[in-house]
Structures are given as structure tokens and as C-alpha cells.
């Protein structure tokens, strides 16, 4: 087993007993198999459960796997309308377990892997998606100055910055030439909209499987996986939801392509976008195709990074990483189509 798969239970238990009030062993540890970027573990103690997220060991791309940023943003959101897990401790000392990590509450809820939510009825499905919409609008309405996050992202055009950053990340982890990806990067630069002044907190990977909901209700209990969060442009998060829904309706694709949404009580893309705009008190969104294309591009770059780590032998789940790598050209092509369609 690689170091990403295991934790030294004794070391973790001894360290946290001094850092978290009421933390007492014996400690049991289980690794979550979902998620590719930051290895995540369930910590079971006799009285309560916690979750530990760590940076993977080894040589990492600059600015990737920023667990300290995850800890900071979730701590800042504790008293807002955005539901997050309670943060307990950030350890920046690599010598404890080999890399930086943080510990938070374990949220005992339901995680919906698929947006079709096959085990729910139509009313509950509609409620879950509507609460997903509510939380997204609430996230973009957070006063970043009031919660101490005004410096959480640099000023300037968010898309310019992000396209530049992910293009560099993609080139750093490139394993073969993907013509559509090269073309998509060129067109995103050429068609970039002017900065409209919107500057909000953005999650960066907002989708239903990064959220925990009530076990017997539609309300969101916590938004998870904040590694890509920053100060940016809100339509990137909104388009990320729509991008996910354009994927195949399979365990792998986790989308809604070809699904009769009305029969399942699910909204159309346009209905979801309109409800979001209504909640935020803003008008219709122009040039939505750009925001959609941007998300396809960024996901392709992220998947390429996962593939590179899998090939290098330091991925959280190497076999899954190699499987995901096949989708880089698919996402790049979808990005081009989104630009064409506007």
C-alpha cells in the first residue's frame, strides 16, 4: 500500500488528543475511496467521528492540494447561510504524518452520487436540487470582507487568471497531445468576456456529489471539497452544475444526458439558472456558453493531473485515475461545442 492509503493510527491519536477538546481513543481509521486529490480518512472514536484530509505525499504541482485553504474557507463560513462541517484543527507540520492535514467534524448525512437520485421520489429529488440551488446562491452572496476572506483570491479578471493557471497545470502534467484541448485553450483566451466587476467566493467544484444532505430530507448539511475555492466569478460555479448535467447518466458520468427530467421531477438547465438568478436578484446571463466551456476546460486539466499522478504512482486511487484520464479529450471536445453554441 502506498502512503496515501494509510495513516499511523497511534501517531494521529496521540497528536489530536492534545489539539481537539474531548478527543480520546481508541482510534479506528478508514480511508474514503471517493475523491482523487486529497486523501481523506474517517476517524472513529468511542464518542464521536471526525474526518481527516491530508495533502498527498511526494512532489506536487505548485498551489495544488491546498488543504490549508480548505480549512480556512470552511472556518470562515461557519456562521453564514452556507452549510459546512465544523473545523477543528489544521496541522501545518509535515513531520507528524508526512504532509499537511486538517480535521473536521464527520457530517452524518446522505451523499447523492448521481443527480438522478434513483432511490428518491420526485418531490424529494426536486427538493434536493432546489436546495442545491439555494446554497449556491447563498455562497455567492457571502460578504467576503465580513467573513475575512477579502484576500482569498487575487484581484483582476478571474477567467483570465484561471485559464492561465489551468493551462500551465495542464502543460505540466501533459502526457500526450490532445488537439481539441490545444484549440480550446486558444479560443478561451480569444473569446474571454470583459471583467464585469462581479467578485464573489466560488467553490470551484460545485456538484451534488460534493455535498451532504439530510438522510430523510432535502436540505444540504454541508458542502465539501473546497480545494479549488477562491475569490472569483460566480457564473463559473453555476456553469459547473450545468456542465455536470451534460455528462452521461451513468455511475461514471454522473450526469443527466438523455434523461427525461420532467418525469423525475428535475428542472431543466434554464429553470435552474433562472431560479438562481431570481434568488440573487440578477437579470438573465449573457454568453453562458463561455462559462460552460471554461468548466469543461478546467475539468479536462484536472483529470489530466489525476492521470499524471496515477502514471507516476502517487495518486489516491491509481486505477481510477487511469480510467478518468481517458476523458480528457471528451471534456475538451465538449468545451469546443459549448463555445460554438454560445
**Distance between the ends:** 47 Å
Q: From N to C, what is the helix and strand string?
A: HEEEHEEHHHEEEEHHHHHH
Q: Which percent band covers the strand fraction?
A: 5-15%
- CATH homology superfamily name of the largest domain: Aminoglycoside phosphotransferase (APH), C-terminal lobe
Shape: globular
Structural class based on helices, strands and sheet pairing: alpha+beta
- The number of helices is 11
By CATH, the architecture of the largest domain is named Alpha-Beta Complex
Biggest β-sheet: count, sense, barrel?
A: 5 strands, antiparallel
Radius of gyration: 20 Å
What features would you describe in this structure?
- Helices cover 41% and strands 11% of the residues.
- The longest helix is centred in the last third of the chain and has 25 residues, at 288-312.
- It has eleven helices and nine strands.
- Strand 1 (28-31) and strand 2 form a beta hairpin.
- The chain has 342 residues and is an alpha+beta fold.
- Strands 1-2-3-5-4 form a five-stranded antiparallel β-sheet, covered by helices on one side. The protein has a two-stranded antiparallel ribbon with strand order 6-9.
- It folds into two domains: 3-105, Phosphorylase Kinase, domain 1 (2-Layer Sandwich), CATH 3.30.200; 122-341, Aminoglycoside 3'-phosphotransferase, Chain: A, domain 2.
